[in-house]
Amino acid sequence: MTGAGDLLARMLQDVFNEPDPQRRAAAIDEVFTDDVVFVDAERAVTGREELAATVTGLLAQGPGLVFTPAGPLRGVGDLGMRPWRLGPPGGEPVLGGLDVVQVVDGRIARLWTVLDT
């Protein structure tokens, strides 16, 4: 069973930072359950295909920006969380937030993203 820390790291690097849609889709298949639910302030989507479309849209809004971890992993039981920042490589972040995941059978089943105010 894969732990929340490993999944959060793969999610950030191989999904939200992956510009190639085919490699991103392969990572989504490995990291997320079929019926994953992703919720942020603007949307709630269900399933890998809707998640992939959402990530594609998010990446299009900030070309050249990258997500980086901004603090330690914290968790308990099947829940994990980690803060992140979004910005140009080596530059000041333009956005930050916290991802919270629920892991089921070694994959992320639920992902909540809470943006910093």
UniProtKB/TrEMBL annotation:
InterPro entries in UniProt: NTF2-like_dom_sf (IPR032710), SnoaL-like (IPR037401)
Domain of life the protein comes from: Bacteria
Database matches in SUPFAM superfamilies: NTF2-like
Domain (SnoaL-like) ranges: 14-110
A Pfam family of this chain: SnoaL_2
Protein name, as recorded: SnoaL-like domain-containing protein
Biological source species: Geodermatophilus aquaeductus
